[in-house]
DNA sequence: CGCGAAGTTGATTGCTTTCAAAGGGTGTGG
DNA sequence: CCACACCCTTTGAAAGCAATCAACTTCGCG
């Protein structure tokens, strides 16, 4: 890894509360790799050899069982994934693929476990990371079990708008196909759902969305801090 | 708390790798409380004042949104719950109610956070706990999204049988109503599902189940270590 | 014996998936 | 520069799984 890259890696939030020496040790054996879109980075069931951290790009976590596939989450810059598997040397429960061309930092599992054992600050940072990840999955489970497809879409639109300045209009960051998978529905259903949102003054033209009446959409979505909040 | 109880608490797996002094400190302000069945122990959205550990009994984690309710998990003796909320002082994402009369150890959140900051061993134990909890929820999410109700039931039967010595027959540890909620289906659907399992030589009489042909049930269930395994 | 909760069974509705086909945009190769 | 292929997206129609409503049975318990 180039020293310029090393500098960049040190600034990853994940390493913030780690002793510099431990960061060095972890980065020494690490790779910073580029992956083109659609490439599978890790595969369900395989042993956890590397902790992965998204430096740039977008990664979809998914899983396949029999002839079904489902998206479990999407990771962006600064997010690590499969930390739990790496820490305790268990097989991956999820697969990951790049949605966009991405740069991924790959830290050998041994080094992570060693730093976890040696550096209490790192151990606490990992605990925090895991706690937030845990709460994220609980929210996803609630979102899935307590809401209809249309409600999930409405809330996703509100959340995404809020994350982008609440302007009421934005472009999709990925294909609608991917959004459908992320929301846990077939692409056809997403299409129909968009049509249904016309009644709530949501206008979709190709990749662009305009929310003309936030209040109306809110009323349909019933956003809730214990499901949607990114902050809690 | 009585000294006899203190002895019992020290043996909780959760405290195993914690310095005795820290355990003392945590237990000093803790309560050991009995709750009758059906009582709600914690409520979604409230601030996390206590870490709860099940000493005896069974607790259901659930959540309500609008007019829908769903079960998110069931905790038994030795399990802690809402650790993530307590650690970082966030509101509970789940509610909890006792399914059976239960004894619950309630440790003040402050004491937990203090021990987390002071004792690296405890911090690591918590990280491990959170990692396993995280993996558990991921499995639950996969179970929910990748399987039909009948498949979830079939797998639950196989898992529960395996946990009880693989004798091929057992009694339900809780009402079928609760099992239905746990599997994410209406009670009526569970009833029909049991009827459907007759074709696979599963016989249900009141609270008792007999699996007469494990192979047949397995073929329907397609158990999978990255969804069902309690060990992974 | 009768109340009440739990469980079963039937009928109906609704959300979602699946299959099928057509429209629309993009990129490549002729 | 056009033609064609390909994929995404949309729309239509049909089928399936699960929820809901309703009625009836069963069982435990006072």
UniProtKB/TrEMBL annotation, chains A, B:
Pfam families according to UniProt: cNMP_binding, HTH_Crp_2
CDD domains given in the database record: CAP_ED (cd00038)
Keyword presence, Secreted: no
Residue intervals of the Cyclic nucleotide-binding domain: 14-133
Domain of life: Bacteria
Coiled-coil stretches noted in the UniProt entry, renumbered to this chain: none
Key words of the record: DNA-binding, Transcription, Transcription regulation
PROSITE patterns reported for this sequence: CNMP_BINDING_3
Protein name as catalogued: Cyclic nucleotide-binding domain-containing protein
Source lineage: Bacteria, Pseudomonadati, Pseudomonadota, Alphaproteobacteria, Acetobacterales
